[in-house]
Automatic annotation (TrEMBL), chain A:
The gene is Gatc. This is GATC amidotransferase. HAMAP family: GatC. SUPFAM superfamilies: Glu-tRNAGln amidotransferase C subunit (SSF141000). NCBIfam families: gatC. It comes from Serilophus lunatus. One of its GO terms (biological process) is regulation of translational fidelity. Coiled coil: none annotated. GO terms for cellular component: glutamyl-tRNA(Gln) amidotransferase complex; mitochondrion. Keywords: Transferase. Transmembrane segments: none annotated. Pfam families: GatC.
UniProtKB/TrEMBL annotation, chain B:
This is GATA amidotransferase. The keyword Ligase applies. One of its GO terms (biological process) is mitochondrial translation. Residues 18-480 form the Amidase domain. GO terms for cellular component: glutamyl-tRNA(Gln) amidotransferase complex; mitochondrion. It comes from the Eukaryota.
Length: 108, 517
């Protein structure tokens, strides 16, 4: 069962990363095939495990401000900024649909 | 030893630092370092020298040159994760483990090379090129390699370091530093340790802070320690372990640094040999060494038992799903806005992000992000992600059962074979290689258990082979004690670096056998 183009397109949207070429798509197919081995294991009645330290209480510190005031340092690594803002292009324009954007999937 | 030498004034921290820097330059072919922090290292060495002159060194690590894998944040020093995404990124802060080492007076020589974002088992997939195993240039390897033809490029059969902390392993193995930090998510510290003939320690998850370590898999990542002997690993562990308020996954129990006793009586020890670790593809050489090691323990009076960890072979599949899922989430932060590479595309936020990520990540990283997103899709969530989490619990239960039955430490091989030549290694893609190479190391990450690679012997090709000990959670003292005993019994040979040695005879002589503890 190959992954449909719709799903591949959906993944490109979600991840904001592209498959680039047929090798990329193949890579995903193989990854799914590999993961399918999990279904050989009987996990009836088994609880999923989130963390190996699940039996302990994680540390929560007091809600006091102990550091900060490092605007200058934090802005240093950003390429585009204005005053104390990070500048991004318009956010209300969605990624072009399959037929309109430059993606390998177009040909599929 | 070197620490004692510093204390007694036989050598000064600046001399030591300069020699290491010179050695790094002459071993450039190894490509172990991405960034060399020459100026700051010398300043740190000078400060250390002042302290020694006043008779007030900060501790055993004062003045000791170290290297740090390039996925740890280091203030004022470029941190790239061997990726175009972070080229030019100058960390504004030190990772907690880096800070701890600096607070002890250690001298940070530079950042070491790795697979891009620590994804890989060869240290071959970073944007700065592959790391070469120093043993490629050892007399031991050259003696055993048969030249195919006179005109063959001598350089072409160099072997990989393993990964993903290959740069750190190569740095320690080639004497350019006395200890290095790596990271271990699926075996990334132990694998290169085995291939480079050094000690590689993966501590228990929750013992050492991950604050400042650029995350791959939050539930499995740990900082790893690479040194030339087990005692050194214990010293470094002592300075790094303990609760960090900045990393809430570090446990709050008090940690007391320990010195390793010289164990003489192993009769109360129970060593488990998990039969599933006799994995397909395990070289007969390593199988024999593993067997010999088990006999060694038995003959010395320890109880050696075969045990079973039935879900071992699913560990790698489980890892594959959980890792890609967490990676998909962790890599989402790289969008070009706050740091790192930013594309020139600016039609919209989404298109800028997409272009930035297309330009910044290599195939391996992108592949894992896409796979991870697939497994996390609503229609796949139960089938893959939750399923993997359930299998994870089964794997952990396997270990708990074995330890409850009285076994103290498990003994297994670390890798399936000795280091492959680069030209062979790259014939298969990253995912296939990782799946093959992580098989023996991954389960310890799944269960969060401490594990250590101890260099054991040289293979028929003259390359290092190591064995792995896996211990109970937070029982590093026991684990390292056993490892140290084993290390003493087997007397792993020292690397005899050839061509490189010619240029720096003097430097090497002094550093050859030195550990710092």
């Amino acid at each position: 069962e190959k992954v449909s183009v719709e799903v591949l397109d959906h993944l490109e949207h979600l991840a904001l990363v592209d498959f680039r070429d047929s090798e990329g798509v193949e890579r995903l197919q193989k990854a799914i095939q590999f993961a399918d081995q999990l279904h050989e294991v009987n996990t009836e009645g088994v609880e999923p495990m989130d963390s190996v330290v699940e039996d302990r209480c994680l540390y929560l510190r007091e809600d006091d401000v102990t550091e900060g005031n490092c605007t200058k340092e934090l802005l240093e690594n950003a390429r585009e900024k204005v005053e104390e803002y990070f500048v991004a292009p318009a956010g209300n324009i969605p990624l072009p649909k399959l037929g309109e954007r430059e993606t390998f999937l177009q040909g599929s | 030893q070197v620490s004692a030498a510093l204390k007694e004034g036989h050598v000064t921290p600046t001399e030591l630092c300069q020699r290491c820097l010179a050695l790094i330059k002459s071993t450039k072919v190894l490509n172990a370092y991405i960034t060399i922090a020459e100026e700051s290292a010398l300043k740190q060495a000078e400060a250390s020298e002042e302290r020694y002159k006043r008779g007030q060194p900060l501790g055993v690590l004062d003045g000791i040159p170290i290297a740090v894998k390039d996925n740890f944040n280091t203030a004022g020093i470029e941190t790239t994760c061997a990726s175009n995404m972070l080229r030019g990124y100058i960390s504004p802060y030190n990772a907690t483990v880096v800070q701890k080492l600096l607070d002890q007076g250690a001298v940070l020589l530079g950042k070491t090379n790795l697979d891009e974002f620590a994804m890989g088992s060869g240290s071959t997939d970073g944007v700065f090129g592959p790391v070469r195993n120093p043993w490629s240039y050892s007399r031991q390897y050259k003696e055993k390699s048969v030249p195919k033809s006179h005109s063959e490029d001598k350089e072409s059969n160099w072997v990989i370091t393993g990964g993903s902390s290959g740069g750190s392993a190569a740095a320690v193995s080639s004497f350019t530093c006395f200890a290095a930090l790596g990271s271990d998510t699926g075996g990334s510290t132990r694998n290169p340790a085995a291939h480079c003939g050094v000690v590689g320690l993966k501590p228990t998850y929750g013992l050492i802070s991950r604050h400042g370590l650029i995350p791959l898999v939050n539930s499995m990542d740990v900082p790893g320690i690479l040194t030339r002997c087990v005692d050194d690993a214990a010293v470094v562990l002592g300075s790094l372990a303990g609760h960090d308020p900045k990393d809430s996954t570090t446990i709050q129990d008090d940690f007391k640094p320990f010195e390793l006793p010289d164990l003489t009586d192993v009769s109360k020890l129970s060593i488990g040999i998990p039969k599933e670790y006799h994995a397909p593809g395990l070289s007969s050489e390593i199988l024999a060494l593993w067997s010999k090691a088990a006999d060694l323990f038995q003959n010395a009076g320890a109880k050696v038992v075969e045990v079973s960890l039935p879900h071992t072979r699913y560990s790698i599949v489980c890892y594959h799903v959980l890792c890609t899922a967490e990676v998909a989430s962790n890599m989402a932060r790289f969008d070009g806005l706050e740091y790192g590479h930013r594309s020139d595309v600016s039609e919209s936020t989404e298109s800028m992000y997409a272009a930035t990520r297309r330009e910044g990540f290599n195939d391996v990283v992108r592949g894992r992000i896409l796979s991870g997103n697939y497994f996390l899709l609503k229609q796949n969530y139960e089938k893959y992600f939750v399923k993997a989490q359930k299998v994870r619990r089964l794997i952990v239960n396997d270990f708990m059962k074995v330890f409850r039955s009285g076994v103290d430490v498990l003994l297994t091989p670390t890798t399936l074979s000795d280091a492959a030549p680069y030209v062979e290694f790259i014939k298969e893609d990253n995912r296939t290689r990782s799946a093959q190479d992580d098989i023996l190391t991954q389960a310890a990450n799944m269960a969060g258990l401490p594990a250590i690679n101890v260099p054991t012997a040289l293979s028929e090709r003259g390359l290092p082979v190591g064995l792995q000990f896996i211990g109970r959670s937070f029982q590093e003292q026991q684990l390292l004690t056993v490892a140290k005993w084993f290390e003493k019994q087997i007397q792993f040979p020292m690397i005899q670096l050839e061509e490189i040695k010619r240029h720096d005879h003097g430097v090497l002589q002094d550093q050859k056998s030195t550990s710092f503890s």
